[in-house]
Amino acid sequence: MQNAQINLHCPSCGHANLEVDRFCQQCQTPLLKRYLWAVGISPSPSVELLGNRFAFKTGQIWLDTYPSLTCPYVLDLPAQAQPYLRLFSYRLHIPQIFTIVSPPPPCSEILLLERPPLAQVDWGDHDQDSVVTAPYVPALPFLQAWGEAGLIRQLNWLWQVVQLWQPLQLEGVTSSLLQPELLRVEGPILRLLQLAWDGSEPPGLSQLGQLWLRWLPDAHFFLKPHLAELGDKLLTRAIQTPEEVLQTLEHWLAIATSGREPELPVLNYQISLATLSDQGMSRKRNEDACYPPSGSVTAPAPEGLTIVCDGVGGHAGGDVAANLAISVLESHRESISAPGLNSDDVVSVLENAIFEANDRISERNDTENRQERQRMGTTLVLAWGQRHQVYIAHVGDSRAYWITRHGCYQVTLDDDVASREVRLGYALYQDALDHPLSGSLIQALGMGDSRHLSPTVQRFILDEDCVFLLCSDGLSDYDRVEECWQTEILPLLSGGTDLPQACQRLIELANLKNGHDNVTVGLMHCQISLGGTPEGSYPLAPTLTERATLQITPEPPPPKPNRFSWKHFPLLGLLLLLLGWLLYGQPQQYWDLLIALLPQQLRPQAQPDPPPAVSPPPSPVMPSAAVAPPSPPPTGSPSPSVAVSPAVDTVFEVSEVITFWSKPIAQPGQGQPLKVGSIVQMQPTPAPPTGWISLKVCSAAPGNSTQMTTSASKLPLGQTGWIQAEQQVHLRSLPSTAVSNCQEDNKNQGDSN
């Protein structure tokens, strides 16, 4: 049965209020409402109040009626509690144990999980006499949300499932990811209602593939064929590791967000930043530091970097350490944004930057002979936004929160004694907080060698507008962020406030409600809209592993060149007959016409001609031009591999010895050298053979007609012939007046003949 009347006791005055009240009706203190998820109890419990404190609501949902009181210390932790504790680092996806209660027999111990994935029911109008029995219900089931989600969100959820696979497998609770009734979504975040034990036969990736194949009908049209292939490979064990699955999903995600896929919309990603730091109400100096500098507000851009550092309290020089860390990390901005980096590369760059900052502070400590508690240090929390993804890195207890329209989520885990006790499975978090040293840091920058430093770097995929809040403990202590996010940060997503105003309000609230420390905030507002510019570089080519997991459609082979076939045989026979007739002294123009009519594949190919034999030089002092070593072509001459067609009738002077042919066929012994200084003219030729240029000899340099040893020993003026196109670089064009001179020389030569 449901509890019809629940009294919610004020943490300040103890007054009993109704569940629907937001503030205490007596002292106006905000009321904390802690709804818990019960594990190990039937849906219809026989009791309405556990431990005289927890009131039954509906199903497995219970309400803490004394939220300000601590719970009895749990000495003996049951075995079923251990996976929750050791997975404390994954509390974004897995609810954690608030306490363990023992109901009357025959019920066994009950785990009460805090911050389960619950959705708030709209209260509507109410008065003090109304009774609201179920203000919260389990969040949206995964299968119900899957068919309504877009491509990037579907990929994001699959990516999160695989990210959780190995950690849950180590704890023997992988079955939690294979039971759809346990999978819930809160916007972009995949969450579990509770953990499920694997049993004697732990599931493998083949079961995951089988599950994903059942999701195919409602998959996005772009994802559907790829997911079908991936599911088959998982089912047949062609893929056997989560890393291979992640690489495949990363490849699809890169394509979906690149803006280069014609069938997918182009998305515009914009990131805006604002920072603000304050000394606080009780500190003599501000040992916090931030980047961009305090008071900065940046214009929207596809990338953004913000950092918050808190000089370790009580350590002399905390402000020096914080500012030194900011300086080192900011200097790596270009390395982080270098083109071509994949997600693993970005994580590596961030880790190396943190190690360098740690070493710089440690060296400063060593130089100044600082020992133990005299050593200066700093915490760090960093957010690097890059289009559709945000990387969060942290060391110490400065925190990062992810605020969406669906909730506020702490995404960093404090590096302190309390968190360590939970991760080791020694205590519940609420019990660990009672430890005298619970807030003592187990690591910070500058306290030792980087070999003993373990920074945490996480990556989050963005598929809707959101805000990341980075802050020092001057704000996060006493759950102040959880109290104020709805009124001070959430309006950023609807335009109800702006970044500078939100920063100022958070500083004021920290000083008003905490006030015990410096306070620094950094806000990163991520916005996504349609109609952006495609990404500058296309996603990286698939790795060898990706090629094994992706069905990559090969590019069509280039068209094969046209080859001679038997249909050319009649034409070839006719041409051979004509060739035999033309070789017996027919005019040059008939030969040219025949060459032009030949198909490209049948035209004779030019062969290099051996240098012509020359007579010994008359003088041992001055070698003949025919055997002189060639000089390099003049600067600016066209490359031999790039033919430049000169204008018809252009007159040239030969600048280097070239070979002149009567026909565009390089036959040994048939070429004649044209010496330096000879004048030639470009001739019009219909369809000239490839690689040949037709020239007419206007004047020959001395020795051209006397040094020939071939049967064609004379080179008469006015003769038309051919040179190979690569010899064009040895022709130097002459002024236009040389054209008429060349024509006159030819006329005179003809008259003399």
UniProtKB/TrEMBL annotation:
Superkingdom in the source lineage: Bacteria
Alphabetized Pfam families for the sequence: PP2C_2
Residue stretches making up the PPM-type phosphatase domain: 272-526
Region (Disordered): 604-644
Biased composition (Pro residues): 607-621
Record-level Gene Ontology MF annotations: protein serine/threonine phosphatase activity
Matches recorded under InterPro entries: PP2C (IPR015655), PPM-type-like_dom_sf (IPR036457), PPM-type_phosphatase-like_dom (IPR001932)
Protein name: Protein serine/threonine phosphatase
